[in-house]
Design goal:
The protein has 6 helices and 28 strands. The strands form 8 sheets. It has a 10-stranded mixed β-sheet, with helices on one face. A hairpin with a 5-residue loop joins strand 21 and strand 22.
Length: 403
């Protein structure tokens, strides 16, 4: 408290102490003596500097990157752990093997449905040069080649559906063709025949399809003169067989079959029968077969010329060549026609050529309807390669040369 003297009244004035004089505080804590002004009615705005915004943006980006890295790591770790066991548990199963069955005609492995397709025999001409080349022979499963009149050979070709595109020329029936057809119990397609063959059809029980009596299924081609121009398309033959009620599954006993015998690379064996020459009569009917080691089959030549199928100019290449030696003679029919006669019943010499080699054996046929079988010197059945078999039926004493 300060005591001041008054010049006028000599009174002592007592001043009340103030808070500022009683407690002196540091300047930064001093309460301002002037009260703050009243707040403005406008809302107060905060302003950040450019540097502050840059710092905030960089920090946000860094946080986002860290989060993404963590997420990717956890995701990758999760799927790696989950996928590996699944892959290990997958079982790889091989596709099912197709169900196959041997064709009774060729021994080739085919579907059961194809193996059950009908088989049909067709008599085909071989007169030089009018009937050559024939159509369809390369597609036949079995072909019999035998002498008829005048030293001419003729074929009986056995086909299993699906038939080739075209077959011909179709010619007339002989008795041994009827017997072979009955042996297989299949329909035989022909264009008439001599009187003995025609009279044999019914008592033999042969399934008969005479083209001359079913002309609407056949046609005459214009590039050859009659009678060497009688042909039938494969689909027409299939319809004809069906219309006659002969479209049934084969029921004949198949020849035994084996796989090809491939030559050894380490110790190759030279073929003992690389070339086979079969003499039926004159040179125009001389058949020659040459062995192909690569494909294990035989290329056929006729009268010194490559024997081809007019369907696509395809070479005729059987897998097996069988030479049967049978008694042969020419006699007169009941109609006073000359006709060949073969001794089909009994036994005789046979040579089976396959894999470039030859097996000497015996053919046997016990009755008109029995199958012809082939056995080796030990009496065991001779198994043929799968594929086409060409059977040359030659008179006993004819020359067959191989080397």
């Amino acid at each position: 408290m300060d005591i001041k003297n008054s010049k006028k009244t000599n009174k002592i004035t007592v001043e009340k102490p103030t808070l500022a004089s009683t407690h002196k505080q540091p300047p930064e804590l001093a309460i301002p003596t002037n009260p703050p002004s009243a707040p403005s009615s406008k809302k107060r705005r905060f302003h950040l500097s450019r540097r502050t915004w840059i710092i905030i943006g960089a920090s946000s980006c860094a946080v986002l990157i860290i989060v993404l890295v963590v997420v990717l790591f956890l995701t990758r770790h999760h799927f790696t752990k989950a996928v590996v066991p699944v892959v290990q548990k997958v079982k790889v199963t091989a596709p099912p093997k197709p169900i196959l069955a041997p064709s009774p005609l060729t021994g080739l492995e085919v579907s059961p449905a194809v193996a059950a397709n009908p088989v049909t025999a067709v008599i085909q001409e071989n007169l030089y040069p009018n009937a050559r080349p024939q159509s369809g022979l390369s597609s036949a499963g079995v072909v019999y080649e035998a002498l008829v009149e005048g030293g001419i050979t003729r074929y009986e070709a056995f086909y299993q559906e699906p038939f080739p595109a075209d077959i011909g020329p179709v010619r007339s029936l002989r008795t041994f063709f009827a017997y072979w057809g009955r042996e297989y119990n299949v329909p035989v397609v022909h264009a008439g025949g001599n009187i003995d063959a025609i009279n044999l059809i019914t008592p033999l029980g042969m399934k008969n399809i005479d083209g001359l009596a079913n002309g609407s299924y056949f046609r005459r081609i214009t590039t050859r003169a009659a009678p060497h121009n009688f042909y039938i398309y494969g689909p027409s033959l299939q319809k004809l067989v069906s219309d006659k009620g002969f479209a049934t599954a084969p029921d004949f006993t198949a020849w035994p079959r084996k796989s090809d015998t491939k030559p050894s690379k380490t110790a190759p064996v030279a073929p003992t029968a690389a070339t086979i020459t079969v003499n039926f009569s004159g040179f125009d009917y001389q058949a020659k077969f040459t062995y192909n080691a690569t494909t294990d089959n035989y290329t056929r030549y006729l009268a010194g010329v490559l024997d081809t199928d007019a369907n696509g100019n395809t070479p005729i290449q059987p897998k097996n060549v069988v030479v049967m030696y049978e008694p042969f003679s020419l006699k007169l029919t009941t109609g006073n026609e000359e006709t060949p006669v073969l001794g089909l019943i009994g036994t005789g010499k046979v040579q089976v050529f396959e894999d470039g080699n030859v097996t000497q054996g015996t053919w046997t046929k016990s009755s008109n309807t029995a199958r012809t079988t082939f056995t080796d010197a030990a009496g065991k059945p001779i198994a043929l390669n799968r594929g086409q078999t060409w059977v040359c039926v030659v008179p006993v004493g004819n020359s067959v040369v191989y080397q």
